[in-house]
C-alpha cells in the first residue's frame, strides 16, 4: 500500500477540494473548466492516475465534458446508476447547469458539487469572490454550505457524502467558497489518512433505494406528472428531506470532531464570543471569519461584540440563528450577494428577518442589513469595525446613523464615493450617499 502524500506546507483551496473528493473514493468525476474552479478538475485529472490512488485499486472515472450542462447531466446519469459522483464549477457555469440541478433535486440524487463562488457576468465580466451565483439557486432544493477556510473545504467535502447519501436526505450538496479568496490562495491543510477516511465516509451502495439502472428491472424516470397526480407530494418530500438534513448535518459534524478533532460549530452555525455579546454580526464565508478579528479588537476597546457565521444556508438553520438573536436583540447581517428587489437587498438578511417573526422573543429584534465585497471588492476588518460601531450606535441611541453608505435601509460597505474615486463618465451614478 502506498502511503498517502500528506500536504506539506500551504495548499490552495481548490487542491484541498480535489484531494477531498479522491479521499472520499468517488466513482465518477465529470469536468469542464471555468474560472476560478478550473484547478480543481485539473488536479483531479492528474490524481486519478497517481500511484497513491492506483495502488488502492481505486477506480475513479474522470470524464471530460463539452460544457457545464453536460457536466451536470453526466453527474445525474452516473448517480442514477448508483455511483458516488463529484464535480466543481462556478459563476456562469453553475447557471448553465441549472436545468440539471433541478433534475438532481427532483430525482433525489446525492451529488456533491463544490462551487468556487464568483461574480456573475452581465454588462461586464467579473470572476472574483461574490456569492451571487450560489445564492441564485438557494430555492432550487439543493443543500448549500458556505465555507470560510481552506481546511474547511477539505473537511466539508469529505463530510458532504455522509450528508447527501444519508437515507433520510438523498439530496445534492453544494459546498461553496469564495473564488480566489480561498480557491487560489494557500493555507496549511491536513488530509485524513486513507484508512481513517474510509471508516468515516458512509459506505458506498451498489444502488440507491429509490432509483437504479438495471436491465433486469427496467424503470421509467422523468415521466410527466399531471396536476392531480403526485407532483406536489414529490416537492414536499424534498422539503421534508431538507428539514431532516438539519440533524444529519449536526450528527455528521459531531462524529467528524470526535474522530479528527476539528469542528465548525455544530455544522450549521459557528459562534464567536456570541453568548455574552451586546451586539451580534451574522455573516458567511471568509468575511464572517474575518469578523472574528474585528470582534477581538472591539473587545479590547471595551465593546462586547460577537459574531455568528452561517455555515449551512440550506437547510436554513432557523433555530440555531434565533438562539443567538434572542441573547442580544441588536444584530447586523452581512451579505456578499444581492437579492435584487428584496426588502433588504440581501438574501441572508431577508431570511433572518423572516425567521425572527416566528417568536415573540425575536420579533422585535433590531436587524440591520449590510452588503459588501461584491465582485471581489475588499472588505477590511476596519470596515467591519465600522459596521459594529453602527450597531453599537443603534444600541446606545435607539437609532442607527443614516450615513455612511445607507440606501433603502441597507448599509453598503466600501462603495466608491468622492469625485477623485469615481470612474470618468460615471459621476451621475455616484451622488452624495
Decide which structural class fits the backbone.
alpha/beta
Architecture of the largest domain, CATH level 2? 3-Layer(aba) Sandwich
CATH superfamily of the largest domain: Thiamin diphosphate (ThDP)-binding fold, Pyr/PP domains
Compute the gyration radius: what is it?
A: 22 Å
> What's the shape?
globular
Describe the largest sheet: 7 strands, mixed
**What is the strand tally?**
16
* Low-confidence sequence ranges: 422-433
Number of helices: 15
CATH topology of the largest domain, by name, is Rossmann fold
- Give the CA-CA distance, first to last residue: 64 Å
Task: Report the average pLDDT across residues.
Answer: 93
Strand content: 15-25%
User: Largest sheet, order of strands side by side?
Assistant: 3-2-4-5-7-6-12
Q: Indicate the CATH class of the largest domain.
A: Alpha Beta
3D structure, described in words:
The chain has 433 residues and is of the alpha/beta class. It has 2 domains: 10-260, 3-Layer(aba) Sandwich (Rossmann fold); 269-429, Rossmann fold, CATH 3.40.50. Helix content is 39%, strand content 16%. The protein is built from 15 helices and 16 strands. It has helices at 13-23, 38-47, 51-54, 68-80, 91-96, 98-107, 132-135, 150-164, 194-200, 231-260, 285-300, 318-328, 347-356, 360-363, 381-397, and strands at 10-12, 28-31, 61-64, 85-89, 112-117, 143-146, 173-178, 186-188, 269-272, 279-283, 305-310, 312-314, 330-335, 366-371, 406-407, 410-412. The chain has a 7-stranded mixed beta sheet, with helices on both faces. A 7-stranded mixed beta sheet has the order 9-11-10-13-14-16-15, sandwiched between helices. Strands 1-8 form a two-stranded antiparallel sheet. Helix 8 links the parallel strand 6 (143-146) and strand 7 (173-178). The longest helix is centred in the middle third of the chain and has 30 residues, at 231-260.
